Amino acid sequence: MRFLVLGLDVDIGRLSGDSVHLKELAANLTKIGHEVSVILGASPETEALPAGFYYLKGKRVWSVIREVHLIARAVKPDVIYERRLSPKVGYSVSRLLGVPYFVEVNGIPEAERSILAGRRYEPSWFQIQARRNLLSRAKAVVAVSGSLRDVLVTSYRLDRSKVHVVPNGVDTELFRPMERAACRHELGLERDELILGFVGSLVPWQGVDIMIHTVSELRKARTSVRGVIVGDGPDRQRLEALVEAEALGGQVTFTGSVPYREVPRYIGSFDVALSLKPPMLPGSPLKVREYMSCARPVIASRETQYDFAIVEEAGGGVLVDSTNIREVATAVGELLSDGARRTEMGVRGRNYAVKHCSWRLTAERVAAACRG
């Protein structure tokens, strides 16, 4: 098939889940024999566009539709595949060309923006009806988690059979097991310290504050442990203030944003990797798959809308109530004190990631949804 993928809200020059997902999906659709063209909403400032990628110069909706239509006429797609909860461009170009369109939903962007602004998210009646009209006209909808499918079915009254769950993936060759001491030597970290690690954007729904409180609880119990936080974002200043308030200066390290290819080395330096998200939003976080693919045991949140069940399914870690700091600290402390258990969980997580979580498998599932 010839895919025209619309990533109109994605900046592939920025290290984020959506940019990783878009590039990996396009690359792996190509690897399994499909032709793929990708249109971005803006030119990345930090890297050259890969082959087959285009960016738009216009910003207004009708200007964007016109540009996408011209590119689509040139590449002659069999499928228009838009990554957006309101796929008005895909719908419009589909009608102009008579080509079916499909939609991928990775989250609820307005809900994320409302959380950042400290507001409650309540979509308007018009917004709900407009989205329902666009989504129901798509040939199929791809959701990255079962909980997100439930939101789409309930909120927009979609036929459940029309919504396919295709989770995020991981590059199992890049994210591979590495020797911990070597990783720490290269990163300038202490060889013998116990390290709790996190990788991701610093935003409120990542639960990094829960990690900081956990480090504090463990140190009060005289467990010598360091927190390493890899990433950057709008919540960093608040988190740094929390570190100071908990008297953890020197015990929690913020690395800032790092190159994507260096992320596996940081994960390789961890003893335990954390994803302690509060139950705010549905989704399929990349980081849990990356942790497991690097053979690091994972402690993640129980009873959220994220697809963290794979941690227990793999035997690659432990799920906890992230609202109960004592429970989190106990689980982390028990794992830190048992090196053999950590190693066993790491092996199980790696085996699961290789078998079930590759981006190639994600691409195959997306292609199957579009063929169907």
Describe the protein.
- The protein is of the alpha/beta class and 372 residues long.
- The chain folds into 2 domains: 2-169 and 358-371, Rossmann fold (3-Layer(aba) Sandwich), CATH 3.40.50; 180-356, Rossmann fold (3-Layer(aba) Sandwich).
- The protein contains 15 helices and 13 strands.
- It has helices spanning 17-31, 61-75, 88-97, 109-117, 125-137, 146-156, 180-187, 208-220, 236-245, 263-269, 286-293, 309-314, 325-336, 339-356, 359-371; strands at residues 2-7, 35-40, 53-55, 79-83, 101-105, 141-143, 163-165, 194-199, 225-230, 252-256, 272-275, 298-301, 317-320.
- A 7-stranded parallel beta sheet has the order 3-2-1-4-5-6-7, with helices on both faces. Strands 10-9-8-11-12-13 form a 6-stranded parallel beta sheet, with helices on both faces.
- α3 (88-97) links the parallel β4 and β5 (101-105).
- α7 (180-187) packs across α10 (263-269).
- The radius of gyration is 21 Å and the shape is globular.
